[in-house]
Amino acid sequence: xxxxxxxxxxxxxxxxxxxxxxxxxxxxxxxxxxxxxxxxxxxxxxxxxxxxxxxxxxxxxxxxxxxxxxxxxxxxxxxxxxxxxxxxxxxxxxxxxxxxxxxxxxxxxxxxxxxxxxxxxxxxxxxxxxxxxxxxxxxxxxxxxxxxxxxxxxxxxxxxxxxxxxxxxxxxxxxxxxxxxxxxxxxxxxxxxxxxxxxxxxxxxxxxxxxxxxxxxxxxxxxxxxxxxxxxxxxxxxxxxxxxxxxxxxxxxxxxxxxxxxxx
Length: 264
Hints:
The protein is elongated and about 70 Å long. Helix 6 packs antiparallel against helix 7. The chain has helices at 33-36, 76-80, 112-120, 145-153, 157-162, 212-227, 236-263; strands at 7-8, 15-16, 22-24, 29-31, 64-70, 85-89, 100-104, 135-138, 188-189, 195-198. The strands form three sheets. The chain has a six-stranded antiparallel beta sheet. A two-stranded antiparallel sheet has the order 1-2. A two-stranded antiparallel ribbon has the order 3-4. It is an alpha+beta fold. The protein starts with 6 loop residues before the first strand and ends with a helix.
């Protein structure tokens, strides 16, 4: 083919004829069939979230959602076809072939077992230390980032490890800084309209699934605690005392339940 007749794959730059090129209307680029199936547009589904309480009046609706980053090849069909997964897309912080980030539906506590069982099935053949498992919780006027700052600041390293939290480590993606609640490198991101995002949580997959119950129960307990007290009726020492108690209780309950499942 002469230069005027050939196309070139946007990704691998191999020459393409009219018959073998694949054209993407979303990004207006041409690809070979192999690269077309793997380029970003083909691996993106924008989430359309469902209200888990729709049709059921709830006075104080607590919901949580997960961003599940998987760095490396994995069973994409299992995740894409699951009813609790709302969307997925590539993520610039993930570096291995086949990597994707999945966004879950907003969930109630009754769906915790189901999402944990899904996480237990996520297996990768690569190191996922750069991945994240950010958690979103429902926003109200009493769920302020400053309150949550003091709650997270009260936890020790052992508790953070058991809850799959990383803000006590050296990672730059989730630093816990008083007053810094905005952006991609903070433990508490307060920039979303309907939720507060906790970027402190590490990746969720087969090896960390055992910590998910404790993490969600801790977040739920603190959320309920904050809902009981108008701003600014809580003192820092009360928040921190409750945080340590809630973490200990969530971790102990999860360990007891896990031990019971093993015996069965």
